[in-house]
Amino acid sequence: MVEQHTILLVGESGVGKTHYGAQFLKRLSVETCALKAAVAPSNVTPFATALSCLTEGLATHHTPADSYVESVWPIRNEAGHVVDLVWPDYGGEQVRNLAVQRQIPEAWRERVLTATDWVLLIRLHSIRAEDDLFSRPLQKLGKLKPQPMTAVHAISDQARMIELLQILLYLGQFHLEKRLQRPGLTILLTCWDEVDDPRAPFEVLADRLPLLWSFIRSNWATPTVMGLSALGRALSTEDADVEFASLGPEDFGYVILPDGQRSTDITLPIQRLMSGRS
Question: Domain span at residue 181?
Answer without folding.
Answer: 3-130+157-275
